[in-house]
Automatic annotation (TrEMBL):
UniProt lineage: Bacteria, Pseudomonadati, Pseudomonadota, Gammaproteobacteria, Pseudomonadales
GO cellular component annotations of the record: cytosol
Binding site for substrate: N22, Q55, N75, G85, N86, N168, N201, E219, R220, G229, S230
Low complexity composition bias: residue spans: 302-315
Enzyme type, top EC level: isomerase
One Pfam match: DAP_epimerase
Subcellular location: Cytoplasm
Protein name in UniProt: Diaminopimelate epimerase
């Protein structure tokens, strides 16, 4: 039957999902053992040679009382991150579709605290994303004091941005028109700017009127995506702090619309939007290379792509029931 051969790992069940085109591979690590290295995540995320996704979402048992699940998030570059808003909505739909819970209000532990997911009708989910962090060291963002707008030097030019954490770090620039905004040029430079020591997601926000905005986001560790939920929350917080937006805003992203609500400092940000399940799949994971193979591997021993892997850190991401 489906017995693994020597050197092959176990089968892994996964679901491909998306929230407004921000796409995910979702893995239930409660019902099956799960073990992936960052280089494997990068290969699976590849849109030509792998499954293709912006983020990998992993469902684990909770480590805290009064919480239903633990939610782990990995960018397509293999880095583990603290928050993913579109992913949180898909997470809620996934745990119900897979019958891991029948609750409509689901409390989930992330690397930066507990978030609450409310399942609505027709695949809609509302997420309480928590209170935004504006204190520079906690974002983290290098600044002497907290401001609503910071001036940043990048590639010989000066830009103005707001710095906000929704559990993950964001820089938000207000632009005239998102269609012509320099997302591909400024995005990666600001993502890796020294003032964001943990890197950052960079949002380009166009104000349409006080209740409508357009947004493109160059995501840390994934590049520009069709939508970024935490980015939409950060953008509305930035727009409110600058006095440009009201407390409830329709945000148009490349992949569709989110409704974001923020009542001001000290209040949590609420995000409402759709979820979609695309297909379910199964893949055979490679087994661990034997210690001999790891020690003795030479360029000629490898398939294309493997040499790249061997040069990278061999950290292992594991999760077991
Ligand atoms: N797409 C996400 C954000 C995913 C994580 C982000 N790239 C980071 O590194 O912080 C969302 O919908 O929020």
């Amino acid at each position: 039957m489906n017995q693994p051969r020597r050197g092959q790992g176990p089968m892994l069940n996964f679901t491909k999902m998306h929230g407004l085109g921000n796409d995910f591979m979702v893995v239930d690590a409660i019902s099956q053992p799960f073990r992936l290295r960052p280089e494997m995540i990068r290969e699976l995320a590849d849109r030509h040679f792998g499954i293709g996704f912006d983020q990998l979402l992993v469902v684990e048992p909770p480590g805290l009382p009064d919480v239903d699940f633990r939610y782990r998030i990995f960018n397509s570059d293999g880095s583990e991150v603290e928050q993913c808003g579109n992913g949180a909505r898909c997470f809620a739909r996934f745990v119900r579709d897979q019958r891991l819970t029948n609750k409509k209000v689901i409390r989930v532990q992330t690397a930066k605290g507990v978030i609450e997911l409310r399942v609505g009708r027709a695949g809609m989910v509302t997420v309480d994303m928590g209170v935004p962090e504006l204190n520079p060291p906690a974002i983290p963002f290098a600044a002497d004091q907290r401001k609503d707008i910071y001036t940043v030097e990048v590639g010989g030019e000066t830009v103005e941005l707001s710095a906000i954490s929704l559990g993950n770090p964001h820089g938000v620039l207000v632009v005239e028109n998102v269609d012509t905004a320099p997302v591909g040029e400024l995005g990666p430079r600001l993502e890796n700017h020294p003032r964001f020591p943990a890197r950052a997601n960079i949002g380009f926000l166009q104000i349409v009127d006080r209740t409508h905005a357009r947004l493109r986001v160059f995501e840390r560790g994934s590049g520009e995506t069709m939508a970024c939920g935490s980015g939409a929350c950060a953008a509305v917080v930035a727009g409110c702090l600058r006095g440009l937006l009201d407390s409830r805003v329709d945000v148009e992203l490349t992949g569709g619309h989110l409704v974001i609500e923020w009542q001001g400092e000290g209040s949590p940000v609420m995000m409402e939007g759709p979820t979609a399940s695309v297909f379910e799949g199964q893949l055979r994971l490679p087994g661990d290379p034997s210690p001999r193979r790891r020690r003795g591997a030479r360029q000629g021993d490898t398939r294309p792509g493997q040499q790249r892997q061997q040069n990278r850190q061999r950290q292992t991401v594991t999760s077991k029931p």
